[in-house]
Amino acid sequence: MNHLKQFRDPDAAQTLLAAIRRIVTRPHAVMEICGGQTHAILKYGLDRLLPDEITLIHGPGCPVCVTPASVLDKAHEIAARPEVIFCSFGDMLRVPGTHTDLFSVKANGGDVRVVYSPLDAVKIARENPSREVIFFAIGFETTAPANAMAAYQARREKLPNFSMLVSHMRVPPAMEALLASPDCRVQGFLAAGHVCAVMGTEEYPPIADRFHVPIVVTGFEPVDVLQGVYQCVKQLEEGRAEVENAYARVVRRGGNPAALRILSDVFEPSDQFWRGLGLIPASGFRLRDEYAEYNAETKFGAVDHASSAEPDECISGLILQGAREPHQCSAFAKSCTPEHPLGAPMVSSEGACAAYYRYRRLEHAGR
Amino acid sequence: MNDFSCPIPKNEYDRVVLAHGGGGTLMARLIDSIFRPAFDNPTLNQRHDSAVFNLPATRIAFTTDSYVVRPLFFPGGDIGSMAVHGTVNDLAMSGARPFALSAGYILEEGLEMSVLRRVVESMSEAARRCGVSIVTGDTKVVDKGKGDGVFINTAGLGVIEHGLTIAPGEVRPGDAVIVNGDLGRHGAAILSVREGLEFSTPIESDSAPVHEAVAALFEAGVEVHCLRDLTRGGLVSAMNEIAEDARVTVRLDEDCIPVRDEVMGACELMGFDPLYMANEGRFAAFIAEKDADRALDVLRACEQARGAARVGRVEMSAAAPVVLRGVLGVERVLDRLSGEQLPRIC
Questions:
Q1: What DSSP designation does B333 have?
Q2: How far apart are CA A28 and CA A226, in angstroms?
Q3: DSSP conformation class of B75
Q4: How far is B35 from chain A (nearest CA, A)?
Q5: Res B195: pLDDT
Q6: Each residue of A286-324: pLDDT tens digit?
Q7: Which domains can be identified in chain A, with CATH numbers?
Q8: What DSSP string runs through B196-249?
C-alpha cells in the first residue's frame, strides 16, 4: 500500500468513525481551518459519515478566497501595464476583483504568466531585464517561506526589475478574531497541518487557554481528518482544551527552522485585510523595510483598501466565518457559478462554495 | 569591399523562414526534402491539389482535429505521433478502420528544420504503425511569435465494415463501462515537463493508437453500444457528454478506476484530479452487460488495452449524469469542469 492509499483506507476510516460514534454524547461544532480539509470532507463525504451530533464548520483557510478585492484590483492594474510581466499562481487567474480578473487582463494583451514557484518569477526577471516582473505573493504561512526566498534571491542578485505584490495571511490571529466574535459557534478547531509544518504549534496554546477551545493539528487525507475530529471530539467530551498534534508525520512542535529563518529575514507581521473578514490586527506579513525596493506597492503605488466593494448578493464574508453554508446563499449556483463567480470562495479549488458546487450542487438545486 | 557572394537566393536553411510558405522554390524544396520522403505513397505522389483514390466501402467515417501542444516533444510521444494517433483514435471511436489522413502544418518562422524533420519522421512512423497513409497535405508559415513552433491539423477517413450503430443514443441502462487502461498519464506527463517538475519515476504519456483494440471487439462479435476517447477533460467529461446525450446515469466505482501511483502523486502535488486529466491512448467502451466479461478478455489480449478495467455501469437517469462511489462508500456527483483545471497555490 502506498502512502496516499494508507490515509484513504476504508478500514482505517471505519475504525475511526466507530470510535467517534462511541465517545460522542452531545452536539459539537468543529471548524476545519483549511480549504484543503474542506474539500477532502466534501469529496469523501466525511460529514455524512460522522454522527449527526458533529457539525463541521468550514473555515477561512483558502488563500485565494481571503485575498482582498482591493489587492486584486491593484494586481489587475499592474498586470495591464505594457512594461510588466505579471506572475501568479494559477488559481488566482479567475478570481474577480471589482471589475475584472487576470484571465481577462491577459486576453486584453497583459503579459500574465502562471508560475509554480516564486523562484520561477525571479528567473523570468533575470531573463527579461527590460521588463518589470511582479510576483503575486499571496497565501498563508505555507507559501510565505518560498515567497520570502524569491525576494531574498532577487535582492542578493540586485535584480532591479523584480518586485512582489504581497498579501500574506497568518492563521492564528484569524482564529482569535473568529473566536472573539459574539456569533461564534466554533467549539473546537482542526488546525491546518501544512501551516503548522512551517510554523510549528507554539502559537496555539495561548488561544486554546484564552478561549477554552481544543485545537488539533490535522492533515488532509480522509483518515487524517477523521483522526483530527476524533481527538477534538474526545477533548470536548472530556472538557479539555489542549493543543494536540494528529499530524505528527509532518508537523514538529518547532516547525521548520530553515523556513522560519528566511520568513523572519524578509517578512514581519502586520495588520492585514481579509476578504470577507475585514481588517484583523497582526494577521499578515509585509516585506521588511530592507526589502522596500522589492515591494510592488513602492513601485506602482499602495493598495487602496477603501476602494473595492463586494457584490451585494455575495455572502462570502459569512461563509468564510462559518456563519452560513454556501447553499444558503441566494446567488449559489444561480448568478454565482465557477464560470461567473461573484465571490472568491466559488473560484478556488479550496473554496467552500466551489466545493459545494462541485460535490453537492445537484442535491441543493434539486435537479 | 571583397564581398562578391553570389546574389542567387540560398536554398538550404537550418530554420523555417517565411518564404517556406510562399509557394515558390523554397516551399517546393521543403516538401520534396522533408514531407514527401517521409509520407511516400502513390496517392501522395500524384502531386495533385487533392488526393484521388477509391474507397473499399460505402460507409465512411470522416473526422478532423488540430494539435497544439507545448513542449513539442514529451516523455512518451511528440506532436507528430499524437497528430496521427488522435485522428486514428477519433475514427476508431465510430468503429471505423483508419484508411487515409491529411496533414496540414502551420509552422512558426524560425522553427529549426531539424525539429520539423523529427516531427515529420515521427508522424511517418506513427502512420506506418497504424497502417494508414498520409495522402495530402499543406504547409503555411506564420511570423515569429504568431505560433508555437508547429501546429498540425490532421483529417482522417475511415471505412466502416460492420453494420452496428456506435453512438451515445445506443447506450442502455445495464451497459458496462470499460476503459482500456490506466488514466491521466498524458496530462500528467505534459504538465510535469512543462512546469519542470521532476519526479523520481518519470511519467510517460499514454499516447497510442487504439484502433486495433477496437477492431478486436468487433471481430469478437461483442455488442458495442458506444465508444469515446478520453482526451481533453478525461474520463469524467466524456462520461458526462455521453450520459447527457443518452439520458442515463453513469455510476463509476472509484476503487475500480486504474490510476498509476506516480500520476496520483503528481495530481496531489498540483491539486488536479486524474479523472479529469487528458489521455491520448485511452477510450471508454459501453458494452452490453452480457458481453462485458468477454470484452475485457478480448481487450486485455491487445497490446493497446492490457490494463483494461471495468469502471462502472449505466443506470436509468437519476440525480446526476455521472455519480462516483468513493473509496469510503459515499457517493458524489462528478460534474463537468468549468474550464481548465488550475494548479493550486499550496
A1: E
A2: 14
A3: T
A4: 35
A5: 67
A6: 999 999 999 999 999 999 988 767 777 888 888 888 888
A7: 3-64+184-245 (3.40.50.11750), 65-170+255-300 (3.40.50.11740)
A8: T---SSPPPP-----HHHHHHHHHTT--EEEEEE--TTHHHHHHHHHHHHHTEE
Residue A239 to residues A8, A188, A227, A234, Cα–Cα distance (Å): 30, 11, 18, 8
DSSP state of A131: S
* B185 and B314 inside one domain: yes
Of the residues B159, B189, B218, the one at which a domain ends: B159
Same domain, B174 and B153: no
One-character DSSP codes across A32-100: EEEHHHHHHHHHHTHHHHS-TTEEEEEEEE-HHHHS-HHHHHHHHHHHTSTTEEEEE-GGGTT---SS-
Identify whether B342 is part of a domain: no
Residue A362's identity, in one-letter code, is L
CB A42 within 8 A of CB A359: yes
Tally of CB atoms within 10 A around B166: 23
Segment (H or E) for A333: none
Measuring CA to CA, which residue among B153, B159, B182, B212 is closest to residue B279? B182
Contact residues, chain A, for B332 at CB < 8 Å: 42-43, 45, 359
Residue that finishes a domain, picked among B159, B183, B206? B159
Please list every residue in chain A whose beta carbon sits closer than 8 Å to the beta carbon of residue B326: 43-45
Residue B116: give its domain's CATH number: 3.30.1330.10
Residues of A in contact with B197 (CB under 8 A): 116
pTM of the predicted protein model: 0.81
Q: Among B138, B159, B142, which residue's Cα sits nearest to residue B150?
A: B142
> Are B129 and B180 contained in the same domain?
no
pLDDT of residue A367: 37
B100 and B204: one domain?
Answer: no
Q: Is the ipTM of this complex over 0.90?
A: no
Mean per-residue pLDDT, B76-102: 96
Question: Do A102 and A119 form a contact (C-beta atoms < 8 A)?
Answer: no
Dump pLDDT digits (tens) for A263-283. Answer: 999 999 999 999 888 899 999
Cis peptide before B71 (omega within 30 of 0): yes
Containing domain of residue B224, as a range? Answer: 168-333
| Any domain includes B340 | no
Same domain flag for B182 and B324: yes
Contact B6/A at CB under 8 A: no
Closest Cα to residue B250, out of B155, B319, B181?
B319
- CB-CB under 8 Å, B327 with A8: yes
The answer to whether the CB of B119 falls within 8 A of the CB of B162 is no
When scoring A2, A37, A65, A116 by the number of chain B Cβ atoms within 10 A, the one with the most, hence best to mutate, is A116
